[in-house]
Design a protein that fits this description.
This protein is of the alpha+beta class. Helix content is 40%, strand content 22%.
Length: 437
């Protein structure tokens, strides 16, 4: 096993001679073997144990094992205790993802700028590739776990679980076993406990075959990634230029990177949808408040303007909302004969307003009854001619009883000006740089 660790470190330039490294130590077979092998190879090692507090006494048992092991080896150990359950509930994450986020945050906190070594093996990488394939993935997903990612290194990535156990047996070193790994109640454990053994019945050299295939898959992924980066280089700070770019793996990889940069999981469906607008034009919503728009092969990212939910309206003062300037001016005395219908669409009889008014966007199925329409209508439907971003950013003035004015549509019948109006409010809307409405 030691030769495989040396080979991985050398091939992927994980560590320099005598370099210090922080080892993520759970107390399980893999991380225990990782710690011992790095010490044996002469690296300066520190360790960190993260207690997830998910398994009661068993979690405390693992922590004590790590403390005793490091004390015996003369290795500095940091211990972080985290409340995974509370964090998962707060962030609305699965327990597995919450544990991972907290674990890696602790690793970074204690790394002191050094590399962080995790104990992922070739067996883990194969299980990940199978899991990705089951869920649907591209070439990158078939590569399993990368040997190196930024300051995270995986020196055991060429080692199988059997290699690890044989190494520990040779050293006479015990380890702890996480009881949750023995139950097939999650996707990874189903693959590990049920699927992999059946595949090994077909091919006893399953992991060796995977390692051989991995070389070819990784080379293909590296080539596609390099071509994708070339395509992304055609970016002027606002627009990605994919004009005359053919459909294929490099374009898919480029789109995947754009989606990932926006915090969007780059699924096959989303990548296909983005490529469709690249070739045919259009606009799609990829996550809340984020849109991709394309015309003639030129793709841009658009985001909703982050604004407060509402702003109080004060007479005689202008304010900005959704990147627009809004002014509400009082006209008194008011003479309706001085104004045409177009003007009156932007005027409110202030004696008919209920309570204070605010400016905001429309809300859900909110309705407004326009003069001479004879019925109330959904604000969203009245604005249906606008694209989704413009529709959500249309200014609505509302009082205690609901919408009294919608930008581009007009005022509500219940507050519109008439022959008996003595004082009116005129609403002027322009973009923040000018261009009045």
């Amino acid at each position: 096993m030691l030769e495989k660790v040396k080979s991985a470190i050398s091939r992927y330039e994980m560590l320099g001679r005598g370099e210090e490294v922080l080892v993520g130590l759970s107390g399980g077979a893999d991380s225990t073997a990782l710690l011992l092998s790095l010490i044996e190879l002469g690296f300066k090692v520190r360790a960190i144990h993260v207690n997830h507090n998910l398994r009661g006494d068993e979690s405390l048992r693992d922590q004590r094992f790590c403390e005793e092991l490091c004390a015996r080896l003369g290795i500095s150990l940091s211990v972080e205790s985290v409340d995974v359950s509370a964090y998962a509930a707060e962030k609305k994450l699965s327990v597995e993802l919450a544990a991972r986020e907290l674990r890696y945050a602790a690793f970074e906190k204690h790394s002191l700028g050094n590399k962080i070594a995790t104990a992922h093996t070739l067996s883990d990488s194969f299980e990940t590739a199978l899991l990705n394939l089951t869920r649907g993935c591209g070439v990158k997903g078939l590569c399993g776990i990368p040997p190196r990612r930024k300051n995270i290194i995986r020196p055991l990535i060429f080692c199988t679980r059997a290699d690890v156990e044989a190494y520990l047996a040779c050293k006479g070193q015990n380890f702890v076993t996480d009881s949750t790994n023995l139950s097939d109640d999650c996707s990874r454990n189903i693959i590990r406990l049920n699927v992999v053994p059946e595949l090994e019945r077909i091919n006893p050299n399953l992991l060796k075959s995977f390692e051989s295939s991995l070389c070819a898959i990784s080379e293909a992924e590296a080539f596609i990634g390099a071509e994708a980066e070339k395509l992304l280089g055609n970016f002027d700070g606002k627009v990605y230029n994919f004009t005359d770019v053919p459909d294929g793996a490099p374009l898919s990889a480029a789109v995947s990177r754009i989606l990932s940069a926006e915090g969007v999981e780059p699924s096959y469906e989303k990548i296909t949808a983005v490529k469709k607008i690249i070739f045919g034009g259009g606009r799609i919503n990829v996550k809340k408040g984020v849109y991709l728009s394309a015309r003639g092969g030129r793709l841009s990212v658009e985001r909703d303007i982050a604004e407060p939910e509402e702003k109080r309206v004060s007479l005689g003062e202008s304010f900005e909302i959704f990147g627009k300037s809004v002014a509400v001016t009082k006209i008194s005395p008011f003479d309706i004969s001085r104004f045409n219908k177009s003007d009156l669409r932007y005027m409110i009889d202030d004696s008919r307003v209920s309570g204070e008014y605010v400016a905001r966007s429309f809300r859900g199925t909110e309705r407004i009854r326009l003069p001479e329409r004879g019925m109330s209508q959904m604000v969203k439907k009245l604005l249906c001619g606008l694209d989704p971003r413009e529709r959500k950013n249309a200014v609505v003035i509302a009082d205690a009883d609901g919408a009294v004015f919608v930008e581009g549509i007009g005022v509500s019948e219940r507050v519109c000006c008439g022959a008996n109006t003595r004082s009116a409010l005129r609403i002027d809307i322009s973009d923040a740089k000018g261009d009045g409405k």
